[in-house]
Give the backbone structure.
Amino acid sequence: MAEHRPQFDDALVRQLVDDQFPDWAGLPLDRVLPGGSDHAIYRLGPELSVRVPRHSGAINDAAKHAYWLPLLAPRLPLAVPEPVAVGQPGRGYPWSWLVCRWLDGTVATAAEFADSVDVALQLADFLVALRSVDLEIPEEWRDRIARGRISGRDAETRKAIAKVGADFDQDALLAVWEEAAAAEPGPQSWVHGDFHSGNLLARDGRISTVLDFGSFGRGDPAADLDIAYSLMSPSVRQRFRDAVGLDDAAWVRARGNAIAGGVIAHAAYASTRPDIRALTTRQVGQALIG
C-alpha cells in the first residue's frame, strides 16, 4: 500500500481540538519543532501534548498507545506517555490522533550520555523489565502487535544502502546486514521496537522517559538494541550488553537491525532533517564498529 501523507496545518489541529474537546478550547496550542518523523507534536496548555500522525504508517499508534500504555506504565522503571484522550477524524483529516500528559525533559544525546555507565544500566533495566512483562493479549490485538523477523526488511534495507553509498561504505554495510538477515531469530518477547536516543527524554543527568510506542509489540528483543549504537560509546556499550543479558546471536541481529533502521531513516530524511542525519550517521557508524 502506498504511503499516504495528508495535508494539515496548525489551524486545522486547533479546530480538531476545539471541536472535540471544548474544555481545552481556551488552552494555547504550540507546535513542537522539529517534531517526530511519524507525528506532528503540539503542546496544549501546560499539561498536555497532542500527537497527530503524519503518514499512513502511523495511523494505528493512537489506539495502541491508549490501550497498552496504561497497562505497561506500572510495570516499567521509567516513565512512559500517559494517554488522556483519543481524537477522531474530522475537518478533512482522516485518522485518529492522541492527547497525552506533557512530559518535561530534553531529548537524550550521545554528547551528554555516550560515556555514562549509569544511563546504560538504566536502559538495560528498562529492557529487561519490558521483556519480562506478563500481559494477556486479546484476540483483536494479536495480529496488530506481531512483529516480523529482521530479515523482513531485506529489500527496503538493500534499497536504502544503495542510496547512502556517498556517506557510508556500502560493502561494509551489506556484510553486517547479510549476516544478521541470515541469522535465526531468538525467542520472542515484548519489544519497544523503536528504542533509540531520539525517543528518550532526560532530566537531571538521567533518563526520565521512554517515548513513542508506535512499534511496540511481540518480537525479537534484538530489535531494541539500537540504543547501544545511537547513544553509547564502545566501552559503555559492553556494560550495557552485559546487563541486557542476551546472547551473542542477538547482537549479530542487533547490529544488522541498527544498520537497517539507520540507513532507511538516513535515506529518507538526511537531506531535510539535520537532527535525524546526525543520529543516523552515529548509529550506522557505531554499528559498523560492532
Remarks:
- Residues 112 and 205 are 8 Å apart (CA to CA).
- The chain has eleven helices and ten strands.
- The two ends are 35 Å apart (CA to CA).
- The first strand starts at residue 29 and ends at 32.
